[in-house]
Design goal:
11% strand; 6-stranded mixed β-sheet; 255 residues; globular; 8 helices; alpha/beta; Rossmann fold
């Protein structure tokens, strides 16, 4: 098979739509078969297949992180007008906001920004600095500023298929993720799930795409200013987020 052309699907669009309402046992078996098909495709082919066969309105979520340009380019190069959902906590680095502006202009992205209805100042006045209050505080903060806004985005935009850039090599919590899954009433697809940092670097280099500016300051993962720090000797990538207490904000595991 030519590694750039559209592969022949093992399932039709109608079958994929029907699978959403099928019993859990049937979903599990069919998803396993489809994932066995997807694992042999390139990320470009996976995106092409998903755009062709997966149902509903498609969207891509992005935190515009260190390597965020990869997925933004990979998906938008095949579907220019795809909604790109950013959950803005109000605590992103200035470099992140400028990086968003740069990539939106360069890639002509259809950016959709969602945030908590309660401003950061109001949250601090009411709850204090939640990220300094252990796991319970972090969980409350993340639900308010990431999980709820993303759920609202998916609902308001009526998203049927959700693209995301998670990779297994990023953390132990992602090692068992499949390329394609069903989350409630929608599909979620992770086209670069099996890529490592070398694959990402080669894609960025090939397409002359930038890393996030904080990459040059030692950051390997970046989120909010209060819970992201550069990689230091003896640390893993997971340790650089949320003071090492956790890796996931819940956005990809609670929705």
């Amino acid at each position: 098979m030519n590694r750039t052309q559209m592969p022949e699907s093992v399932v039709t669009s109608d079958e994929l739509l029907a699978l959403l309402s099928a019993p859990a046992v049937e979903q599990k078996g069919e998803l396993e078969r489809i994932n066995n098909f997807l694992v042999d495709l390139t990320p470009t082919q996976r995106v092409a297949w998903a755009l062709e066969y997966l149902p509903g309105t498609h969207a891509l979520s992005s935190s515009f992180g260190i390597q965020g340009a990869v997925m933004l380019h990979l998906v938008s190069s095949q579907k220019k007008d795809i909604p790109v959902i950013l959950t803005d906590t109000g605590y992103l680095f200035p470099e992140t906001y400028r990086f968003v502006d740069e990539l939106v202009e360069r890639l002509s992205l259809n950016l959709k920004t969602f945030a908590s209805p309660m401003t950061p100042a109001w949250q601090e006045a009411r709850f204090g600095l939640l990220w300094e209050k252990g796991l319970d505080g972090l969980d409350q903060y993340n639900r308010m500023n990431k999980v709820e806004p993303m759920q609202r985005a998916l609902d308001e935009l009526d998203i049927g298929t959700w693209f995301a850039g998670l990779r297994r090599s990023q953390s132990s919590t992602r090692e068992a993720l499949p390329i394609l899954a069903i989350h409630g009433s929608r599909y979620k697809i992770l086209p670069i799930l099996d890529w490592n940092n070398k694959d990402v670097h080669e894609y960025l280099t090939e397409h002359q795409l930038p890393y996030h500016p904080l990459w040059e300051k030692g950051y390997v993962s970046v989120g909010d200013t209060h819970s992201s720090k550069p990689l230091e000797l003896g640390m893993s990538e997971e340790d650089t987020r949320f003071n090492g207490l956790k890796r996931e904000c819940g956005l990809h595991f609670e929705i």
